[in-house]
Amino acid sequence: MHIQTSMWGEVEVQEKDVYQFPKGLPGFEEETEFALIPWEDTPFSYLQSVREKDLSFLLVSPFTFVPNYSFELSEVDKEELEIVEQVSVYSMVTIHSQTNKSTMNLLAPVVLNPEQRLGKQVVLHQSLYETRHLIWTEDEEDKSVKGGV
C-alpha cells in the first residue's frame, strides 16, 4: 500500500504496519487509520495518518528511556483492543527546539495490538506520570555532548 507523507513524500507500507484506531486519537477522532513507520537507525517511529499526509506523530517506546515504566491496562481497553497476548506501547514525543528539552507523554501511551492491528491512545487516570517527561536526563545529555551517545 502506498501512502502520502509530508516528510518523505510517497512511501510504501505493509498491511501489517497499518493500525485501525476506531475512536481516532484525541483531537483527531475522524482519523482512524494510521501506519507505523520506523525511523531507521533510531529508536523512534512515526504514526502516519493513511488519509492525511500532514498528520503524523513521532513515537518512541517509553521503555527505551524509562526502563521501569509500567501501568495496568483496564479491562475495557483490553476488550476494545482485543488484546490476548501481544501488545506494543509507545509514547508520543514532542521535539523541542533545544533537543535536550524534548519530552514524551507517559500519561497517555499509544497502545497497539499487533495481532489485530488495533490501536488506542490510553489516558492513565490516577497516575503520577507526566505528559511532558524529559527524554534525556542530564547524565545522558553529558554523554551525548562528549560523544558517548
From TrEMBL:
Subcellular location, record wording: Cytoplasm
A family per Pfam: FliW
UniProt keyword list: Bacterial flagellum biogenesis, Cell projection, Chaperone, Cilium, Cytoplasm, Flagellum, Translation regulation
Main location: cytoplasm
Protein role: Acts as an anti-CsrA protein, binds CsrA and prevents it from repressing translation of its target genes, one of which is flagellin. Binds to flagellin and participates in the assembly of the flagellum.
Family in the record: Belongs to the FliW family.
Quaternary organization: Interacts with translational regulator CsrA and flagellin(s).
PANTHER family: FLAGELLAR ASSEMBLY FACTOR FLIW
Matches recorded under NCBIfam families: PRK13285.1-1
Protein name: Flagellar assembly factor FliW
Source species of the chain: Paenibacillus taichungensis
